[in-house]
Amino acid sequence: MLVAFLISFFWTRSVNKNGIVASSNPASAGAVGPAAAGGGQAPMMANVQATMKKAKDNPGDTQAQIDAAKMEYQIGRTKEAIDFLKQANQDDPKDLSTIEIIASLYFDEKDYTSAEDWFKRALMIKPDEPELLTELGATFIERSPPDPDKAIGSIQLALKINPKDAHALAHLTEAYLLKKDTKSAEDTLSRIKDADPSNKMISALQEQIDSLKSGKQVVIPSETN
Hints:
By secondary structure, this protein is mostly helical. The chain folds into two domains: 1-11 and 48-109, Tetratricopeptide repeat domain (Serine Threonine Protein Phosphatase 5, Tetratricopeptide repeat); 128-214, Serine Threonine Protein Phosphatase 5, Tetratricopeptide repeat (Alpha Horseshoe), CATH 1.25.40. It has eleven helices and two strands, in the order αββαααααααααα. The chain has a two-stranded antiparallel sheet with strand order 1-2. A hairpin with a 2-residue loop joins strand 1 and strand 2 (19-22). The longest helix has 17 residues, at 41-57.
């Protein structure tokens, strides 16, 4: 979805012909435990402690902050990982990769207000990146209460750049579902079917459109496999 940096350091989240494939399981970012430590937990813990100490002792060392963030994420401490990444951002505020990762981690932590802020920071650097515009829109869909109008505004900007982006179209369908705009939801779903007939989100979105038509509660489907 974002950059090779993010994929190799944290988790795999990619947009493909089947929709979104996301995993925030630390195991997907690299094994942590006795096997990864070369045969024992003590060497692994020593490596963790050394990495953290180096970062804390050298706040101006961007790579040290990134290494510590990676380690924190791998041991399941996402909030601490974000703190180290924020320090890296202070050291190099124009590094887009770091900003994107912070935004995505906040999103996975369900802190959608903070995710919105960091996606907007990323867009200040790269305003024509459709995936960033789509993810920004998604923050308005996921929050409680949702703000579908803001979601639609951001996602429509992404679709001006790539009108056949199935990921953006899926989120746009969700936003119309939240607005109870059946016609727009159906029209957008038709665009997904044309652009990507095998997309796994199609059946879930169709089910929710049918629910809306019958007066049942709409539940925004998860795109996580």
